[in-house]
């Protein structure tokens, strides 16, 4: 029981990190809190479902196409909406929330609800690990999650585009004077975040079914992880996913599933009151509270 | 040849508003009409509308009050994403007072207004120091959490809620009570915010550190603004409990947080009148769009985006500018 919970908590933590990393990347670089994040996640899942079942494309191809389409949607969203309200936090939040609402409710209106709306697992197989029954998809989540996060670290530290990303995040005006186009970088950052949401959806959705309600939950989970870890800090996201991932599974196993969501919400509240920048956020004391 | 737009105050505005030299009916009307038309509307609308639209008017007034409460907080620099907290607190307090101790509605509503306001203020006191988006996130999360607590602990009826709550004596009392409250809140708080007290609140929004510098205790003022705002929210909640004769988890729904913000944004933030105007546009609109089912929420989301991008100042500021000023194109010298 205990070891099994630990194994599942580990998998849950990596899945949480995958869900949150895109939101975190977008916020860390462009400063846009993308409240349409959950909608983009669901959008990519439905797109691959449609490509797979209506156009009969092979699964891998439809997954890749849906990831690219979601990234494109993110870029368009920045170019046509967010760029015009850049820097006004409230307007950004309301605009992205409005877009997310429109996408999710459109799918609900079109009747995309039910158990037939799910994606197949990549490889149907399962193992016993430490006395727990673990299927291949969950192992894939762990492997690809670790690869993706380390890949992202290499990208932001050792490629010129990645360094430009970090430059904009650190000091936008200095970056501008060095010839980095901040609007272009922010477009790419929002589009990258959307693409990462799509990757997470492709990996995690096969464990359940697709539903518009899932979009809101993914958004809340991504927010929880990012707030606790510190908005914009990659190390923080990983640590926070482990904290929430373990706390969730253990409350689920030992206290009751009603309390699962409470744990992350209470954790957010405590962190926001005690240290608003999160565990690993950079200290900007006067910007957060006075 | 380059041209720019020049805006100049109308003569009638300068005479009647700035100098306050009223010498004709026209000038008096210019000053009074913007105030008298809404008042007349609030008083006459309940009489001429049918039963269905009277119910719509009721929820218009409730959302207008919630938007006013949001706007007062926003003017003090606290952007709340969770008006549902205030609404739900008031609703549950009134429900409990009536269900367990059977207080009559006309006593329970004022009591729940005060009690709900006090509870919300005490609840949020620890986060008064938070600024900007951090305060917003706390307010977004608290209602979500309260729903889970009610669900998990099954207090106050749990998922089923409290039923059998006493209704208000008649529908006319319902309508005119909420219309009266709306008028009092709209004009009263507009006056309050135009006074020196309101100036302090607005200054806290603009630059809180320089207000501290002036020797003013901003936490005390922020707590007062929070109390005013949460009292208005709690009042609407308590009122709706007695109208629906039911209180349950839906009172913490996202609708009660998002629609007031949308109303304030569409109508124009920072004036209270804009928030009211926004509610009078959005709520009937979503009622008309009810026919197309779930699609109306889609339109509603897109509407929000279009307004934020195309007319960020809101309708009220736009109309006010047209009313007070004229525009002409002049050459750039």
Give the helix proportion of chain A (percent range).
over 70%
- Silhouette of chain B: globular
Overall structural domain count of chain B: 1
Helix content range of chain B: over 70%
Any idea what the radius of gyration of chain B is?
Answer: 21 Å
Largest interface: which pair?
A-B, 41 and 44 residues
Distance between the termini of chain B: 10 Å
Strand order of the largest sheet of chain A: 1-2
Number of helices of chain B: 14
Strand content of chain A: under 5%
Radius of gyration of chain A: 19 Å
The class by helix and strand makeup of chain A works out as mainly alpha
Commentary on this structure:
The complex is a heterodimer of chains A (290) and B (333). Chain A has 290 residues and is mainly α. Chain A is built from twelve helices and two strands. Chain A has helices at residues 2-30, 37-53, 59-80, 89-109, 136-158, 160-170, 172-177, 182-204, 212-229, 234-254, 260-274, 285-288; strands spanning 126-129, 132-135. Chain B has 333 residues and is mainly alpha-helical. Chain B has one domain. Chain B has 14 helices and four strands. The model of chain B has no long low-confidence stretch (mean pLDDT 87). The interface between A and B is large, with 41 and 44 residues.
Short description:
Chain A has 290 residues and is mostly helical.
Give the topology.
The complex is a heterodimer of chains A (about 290) and B (about 325).
Chain A: H1 2-30, H2 37-53, H3 59-80, H4 89-109, E1 126-129, E2 132-135, H5 136-158, H6 160-170, H7 172-177, H8 182-204, H9 212-229, H10 234-254, H11 260-274, H12 285-288
Antiparallel strand pairs in A: 1-2
Helix pairs in contact in A: 1-5, 1-8, 1-9, 1-10, 2-3, 2-4, 2-8, 2-9, 3-8, 5-6, 6-8, 9-10, 9-11, 10-11
Chain B: E1 3-9, H1 11-19, H2 25-48, H3 51-75, H4 83-101, H5 105-124, H6 132-153, E2 162-163, H7 171-194, H8 196-206, H9 208-213, H10 218-244, E3 246-247, H11 255-267, H12 273-288, H13 295-310, H14 315-324, E4 325-331
Antiparallel strand pairs in B: 1-4, 2-3
Helix pairs in contact in B: 1-2, 2-7, 3-7, 3-10, 3-11, 3-12, 4-5, 4-6, 4-10, 4-11, 5-10, 11-12
């Amino acid at each position: 029981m205990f070891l099994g919970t630990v194994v599942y908590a580990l998998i849950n933590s990596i899945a949480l990190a995958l869900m949150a990393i895109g939101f975190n990347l977008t916020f860390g670089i462009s400063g846009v809190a993308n409240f349409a994040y959950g909608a983009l996640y669901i959008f990519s899942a439905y797109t691959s479902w449609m490509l797979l079942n209506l156009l009969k494309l092979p699964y891998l191809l439809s997954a890749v196409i849906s990831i690219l389409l979601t990234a494109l949607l993110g870029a368009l969203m920045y170019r046509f909406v967010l760029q015009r309200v850049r820097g006004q936090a409230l307007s950004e939040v309301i605009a992205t929330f409005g877009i997310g609402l429109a996408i999710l409710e459109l799918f609900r209106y079109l009747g995309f609800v039910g158990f037939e709306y799910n994606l197949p697992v990549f490889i149907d197989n399962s193992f016993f690990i430490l006395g727990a029954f673990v299927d291949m998809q969950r192992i894939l989540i762990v492997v690809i999650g670790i690869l993706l996060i380390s890949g992202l670290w290499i990208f932001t530290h050792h490629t010129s585009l990645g360094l430009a990303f970090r430059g904009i995040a650190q000091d936008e005006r200095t970056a501008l004077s060095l010839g980095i186009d901040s609007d272009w970088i922010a477009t790419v950052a929002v589009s990258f975040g959307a693409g990462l949401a799509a990757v997470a959806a492709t990996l995690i959705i096969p464990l359940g079914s697709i539903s518009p309600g899932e979009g809101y939950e993914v958004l809340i989970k991504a927010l929880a992880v990012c707030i606790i870890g510190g908005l914009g800090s990659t190390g923080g996201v990983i640590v926070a996913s482990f904290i929430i991932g373990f706390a969730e599974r253990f409350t689920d196993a030992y206290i009751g599933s009603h309390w699962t969501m409470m744990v992350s919400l209470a954790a957010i509240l405590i962190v926001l009151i005690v240290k608003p920048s999160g565990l690993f956020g950079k200290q900007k004391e006067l910007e957060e509270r006075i | 040849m380059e041209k720019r737009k020049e805006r100049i105050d109308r003569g009638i505005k300068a005479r009647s508003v700035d100098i306050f030299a009223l010498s004709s009916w026209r000038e008096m009307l210019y000053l009074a009409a913007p105030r008298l038309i809404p008042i007349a509307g609030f008083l006459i609308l309940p009489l001429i509308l049918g039963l269905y639209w009277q119910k719509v008017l009721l929820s218009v007034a409730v959302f207008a009050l919630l938007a006013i409460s949001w706007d007062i907080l926003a003017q003090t620099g606290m952007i709340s994403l969770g008006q549902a907290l205030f609404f739900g607190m008031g609703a549950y307090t009134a429900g409990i007072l009536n269900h367990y101790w059977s207080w009559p509605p006309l006593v329970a509503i004022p009591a729940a207004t005060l009690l709900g306001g006090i509870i919300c203020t005490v609840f949020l006191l620890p986060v008064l120091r938070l600024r900007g988006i951090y305060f917003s996130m706390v307010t977004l999360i608290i209602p979500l959490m309260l729903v889970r607590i009610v669900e998990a602990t099954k207090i106050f009826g749990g998922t089923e809620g409290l039923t059998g709550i006493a209704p208000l004596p008649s529908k006319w009392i319902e309508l005119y009570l909420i219309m009266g409250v709306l008028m009092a809140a709209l004009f009263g708080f507009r006056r309050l915010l135009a006074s020196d007290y309101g100036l302090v609140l607005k200054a806290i929004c603009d630059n809180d550190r320089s207000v501290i510098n002036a020797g003013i205790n901003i936490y005390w003022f922020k707590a007062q603004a929070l109390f005013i705002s949460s009292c208005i929210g709690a009042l609407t909640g308590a009122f709706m409990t007695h109208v629906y004769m039911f209180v349950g988890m839906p009172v913490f729904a996202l609708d009660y947080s998002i629609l007031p913000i949308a109303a304030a944004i569409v109508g124009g933030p920072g004036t209270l009148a804009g928030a009211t105007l926004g509610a009078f546009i959005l709520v009937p609109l979503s009622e008309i769009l009810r026919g197309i089912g779930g699609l109306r929420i889609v339109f509603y989301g897109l509407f929000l985006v279009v307004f934020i991008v195309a007319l960020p100042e809101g309708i009220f500021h736009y109309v006010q500018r047209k009313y007070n000023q004229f525009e002409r194109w002049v050459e750039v010298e």
